[in-house]
Amino acid sequence: MLTVNRLSHADALILIRGAREKAREIGVPMCISIVDESGNLIAFERMDGGKVTSITISADKAYTAAAARKATHDYNAVNVPGNLAFGIHTEVGGRISSVGGGLPVSVNGEVVGGIGLSSGTPAQDMECAEAGIAHFYSTLE
Amino acid sequence: MLTVNRLSHADALILIRGAREKAREIGVPMCISIVDESGNLIAFERMDGGKVTSITISADKAYTAAAARKATHDYNAVNVPGNLAFGIHTEVGGRISSVGGGLPVSVNGEVVGGIGLSSGTPAQDMECAEAGIAHFYSTLE
Amino acid sequence: MLTVNRLSHADALILIRGAREKAREIGVPMCISIVDESGNLIAFERMDGGKVTSITISADKAYTAAAARKATHDYNAVNVPGNLAFGIHTEVGGRISSVGGGLPVSVNGEVVGGIGLSSGTPAQDMECAEAGIAHFYSTLE
Amino acid sequence: MLTVNRLSHADALILIRGAREKAREIGVPMCISIVDESGNLIAFERMDGGKVTSITISADKAYTAAAARKATHDYNAVNVPGNLAFGIHTEVGGRISSVGGGLPVSVNGEVVGGIGLSSGTPAQDMECAEAGIAHFYSTLE
Q1: Of A103, C9, D35, D123, whose CB count within 10 A is highest?
Q2: Measured between CB atoms, which of C2, C40, C107 is closest to A6?
């Protein structure tokens, strides 16, 4: 039997709060998805004005980051023609995302979930995802 | 009527064993898929710690290698903009994989199945897939 | 943070062994899928002669049983016209199965995974799934 | 290693010819799909006037009949509320068909492929599928 740690719903709300605050600060309403370590959705928020397409995109970014234990911008870096990982973004029915904005959430060196942001530029999405994690870590101290 | 040779379940377990041993040796828990010559799954193993995303990715690599009778890294080589094969990875509902780690399994010059590895880098996935086939061949001698 | 228990790969092989023995006993080669508590595949075996359609069906039965924490034959019982659960089998892209042969695997009252059998009649599939779990429990004692 | 027998392309054309003749005789232009023993398409014909929806339906009927080694009308008989197989038609992404018109093709007691007809009533589809197989058998003698 294996024992696995994962984000609780309360943890997910903390992550969303941190991401939402940054989204408000930069003036871009976002879709924010939080998944567990298996990539399954725990919480989702579409801020008023968040894009409809970003509902799925944010969830796929979070899924990729958690279930593959890799930031989506790291997949972006290797998803270039000629690299042996090229084409990874169409795998799993296209759910593997190589667009910046998905980050794994780790505690004590173990991936316990993922966060995915979408509606801004990839750089804005990444900034808000990082803010969510930073806020989450601040509550663990 | 045609007569076709394909891997048995016992053959599949031998392929998995060879791939698993290499995965352990390099310290990367893997997802390992073995398919028959038509691309249909015979056996699958997610080593403890293998990635959830790699369940499907390993199966799709094996499917591509067996059913198209081509290593996924060979598709990778031609899946570059400007090449007439560019975009092949989105075909068949995205099941065609151009990420290294899928190899056809041939006996007497005939493709009898495929092996797909996922969870490491493409180079690591390829190394373990090759180890699976090498172990399988060693049992045929 | 939540802590979750799930089947290991070694546990999955024990479940498969128990189901396979029963399948051999009744003379019906089966497809056998074992998933973790989130519904993700850990191990799969297509016995020589198992049906190709049963690859996906066994996996979906195991997925349903584990992720919904309900035997597929229990969904079958309520999936009748007029019952408020009618139509449940087309949900989640059709992955929810209401065909007998999928059982949750519980340890200490907690669902830690699922087993799905397919290739026989639903009654045969159920018998083999139960045999897998019985064998697994016998190794825990 | 396993050895499997399957329909050749020449066999598939014979099956189509028999089905087409019956379709002309009853005055219903049909879609006719022939698959191998793994359920993969070997030959397809849409007679002038065949329905567009029947392209996929005939292929799914043939797939079901060959890969599950069962006539689709036999699935129809058990796909009734209260039966433990109820809901089978939505499995494998909805490709399992319980509509009459798909038949396995057997030689020497072994399923070597499948035939699927669509565009008429299920009874007409079944009649034409049977005619295809009868014609195929007549050429084996």
Answers
A1: D35
A2: C2
